[in-house]
Specification:
Helix content of chain B: over 70%
CATH topology of the largest domain in chain B: MetI-like fold
Number of strands of chain A: 10
CATH architecture of the largest domain in chain B: Orthogonal Bundle
CATH class of the domain at 7-98 and 175-257 in chain A: Alpha Beta
Structural class of chain A: alpha/beta
Distance between the termini of chain A: 44 Å
Largest interface: A-B, 25 and 21 residues
CATH topology of the domain at 7-98 and 175-257 in chain A: Rossmann fold
Oligomer: heterodimer
Order of helices and strands of chain B: HHEEHHHHHHHHHH
Structural class of chain B: mainly alpha
CATH architecture of the domain at 7-98 and 175-257 in chain A: 3-Layer(aba) Sandwich
Largest sheet of chain A: 6 strands, mixed
Strand content of chain A: 25-35%
Number of helices of chain A: 11
CATH superfamily of the domain at 7-98 and 175-257 in chain A: P-loop containing nucleotide triphosphate hydrolases
Distance between the termini of chain B: 47 Å
Radius of gyration of chain A: 18 Å
CATH class of the largest domain in chain B: Mainly Alpha
Number of strands of chain B: 2
Number of domains of chain B: 2
Amino acid sequence: MDCPSDTVFILEDVNLFFGSVPILTDVNITIRQRSITSIIGPSGSGKSTLLRTLNRLNDHYPTFRCTGLVSYCGNSIYDNRNGSVDVSRLRQDIGMVFQKPCLFPTSIYENVLFGVKRLKLRPKSEFYEIAETMLRAVFLWDEVKDRLKHSANELSQGQQQRLSLARALACEPKVLLLDEPTASLDPKSSEAIESLILKLGTRLTVIFVTHHLEQAKQLSETVIFLSDGCVCEWGGVDAIFSCPDKIMTQQYLAGHAS
Amino acid sequence: MMTSVRGRGLVGRFWFLLTMLTTVLSVMLLVSVVSVMVAKGGAVLTWEFFSQPSRSFGAEGGIRSQIMGTLILAVGAGLISLPIALGTALYQSEYLSLRFQSVVMRLIYALNGVPTILFGLFGYLVFGLYFGLGISWLSGVLILAMMILPTLVVSIREAIESIPVQYREAGLALGMTIPQLIRTVIIPYSFHGIVTGLLLGLARATGETAAILFTATTFFGVDLPKSFNEPVTTLQTHILVLSQEAVHLSATSAVWGSALTLMVLVFCFSSGALVIRSRFGVKV
């Protein structure tokens, strides 16, 4: 799906519920193409729910409900009155990496190509080349090139997370959602993922959830701060971190700084 | 205070002894059944016993036809039941709402509790008389397929539910549709449960007597069926009829030999299921 304008996502008056419990209310934000956006906020503030709303991954929870407008490249993704939303096509466009690396119990090679093969995105003759390109893109090629047929579970957590990223990138997404991608990693592996996010931000729209304010500050151009079931404040990284408007944001940033 | 502690100790010891005794009793029962079978039937288990058809109404010959008949019914039932059970389990887990899932599961459990003789009666009336299959191996296969369906559905459902939710989400996040997810994630990673369910179903079908007694089997005079509407003879029927009516000593030995063979067949299916479940279950 090609975006006609510079804006990838527009969220207008969005309310998210699980059953009758509101998780987030009155969300109004826009996200630009080829930018890096971070979502921050205290635990339970709805960061992951908001992220998963963007690729409709909350749909498989039977009680999840979304009202308002969530638009991706000009198309409302929850308005399916005419059956116009192809959710699987949408998710191919919007790749996602989870907090804990989730690899299938198969080889490293098969994991990179899991989506490409099953969704028949490319001809078989290109598989090896795709695997190499993607593993190089996530700085993993040199570490695994001699053991591509080995089980992916042999890799360290950091390597597994980079492999998850390679698998998502192999499907050539236009947007990448990352749900606390470095939460379960050691500092060195976190650094590798952070470098990757910066690199990917030049050609993709990257939206990530993080608890590390320093990470949000260093990597993102836009910051969305969630608290008390709503978007408390959002805007440019400098504005949010240097002179936040809301007291709640000031308190949160100060609490983390101390 | 001391009395109360001593009292608790006595109660604890009582429960320990009671549960130990019941365990010993269970094991003893099983061991005694197996021991009697082996002691009485072990001697007749020769190659001839397995490879020859029975003669003189079971007093001579072997149990080749009975083994073949038992396997035809059990395997046939498994082959018919498996795709239906797989479809049911997948439809429930992937498409049905939680409320309807529980309704369907209640029905499946209710089907599991139906007395087997009623399956036999239903099969006799519907397949035998209404569809004109008569007393035939096909009637038996269809009835057994119905009987083992709940076992298969429950086992496959358990295997599907044991797939970590992360696999499902990882597949969906890559843009897979539900059919693609079923084909590439759910079936491969619940395969052990499918095989386990099939083997448990085969074990149940192999041991079943009542439902097939008056719909699919005959005691004597048949070997391998040559058409759909011919009956077969099975180990169960052989044991039942010979144990009630045989007077010849060699026929009595054949009963024990048949019983031991049936027990081994059921044991092989059940233990196969157990091995597959413990060895190939998805490990997270």
